[in-house]
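Hello forum,

I keep getting stuck at the same step: I have a sequence, I want structure tokens, and every attempt I make locally crashes halfway through. Rather than fight my setup again tonight, could one of you with a working pipeline run this one for me? It's a single chain of 98 residues.
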Amino acid sequence: MRKRGMGIMGRQWLLFTLMGALLVAFLWQSLSSPLDALLLMPVPTEVVDAWERLRTGSFARSDIRVFGSLVTYAFLHADIEHILFNLAMLWVFAAVVK
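Reply #2:
Ran it on my machine without issues. Output:
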């Protein structure tokens, strides 16, 4: 049952939060040096090496960034059309899931 008076933000706060995070990441990426975006990109050999260190018990604190890049790369976008299309598809997907 739908609650009265919640409005669109009350019902879809998670969607708007994710969209806001995507826009903030895109603005950061657009305004910063191209080399800064490399911090968010996973490098396959680094991920494999960090996984091996985790399996053998020699996991270092610096490996956390490597595993974090597996999530943060999803926030990188090539240009304004790319992010606008992704935001539109996220909106449509959220409507279908709901």
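The mean pLDDT is 83. If your local run keeps crashing, start a new thread with the error log.
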